[in-house]
Design a protein that fits this description.
This protein is an alpha+beta fold. It contains two helices and four strands. Strands 1-4 form a two-stranded antiparallel ribbon. Strands 2-3 form a two-stranded antiparallel sheet.
């Protein structure tokens, strides 16, 4: 699994950081998403929940086998 974020699309709602804090955080300056771990080994369900909860659609998951 590989995560990517679109900071320009992010509106700073913070749902991702609340649901998967080991993967996402919020930038202290502008409140937009900050990616902590682009290739999480655990917590797939929390990451998918964060993706579903993002009101702006700024998060993307791509499946990878590495």
């Amino acid at each position: 699994m590989r995560i990517s974020v679109d900071r320009e699309r992010c509106i700073g709602a913070g749902m991702c950081a609340l649901l998967a804090p080991e993967v996402f955080d919020q930038d202290e300056d502008d409140g937009r998403v900050r990616l902590v771990d682009p290739r999480p080994r655990r917590g797939h369900s929390a990451v998918r929940e964060a993706l579903d909860a993002c009101p702006s659609g700024a998060l993307e998951i791509s499946e990878s086998r590495d």
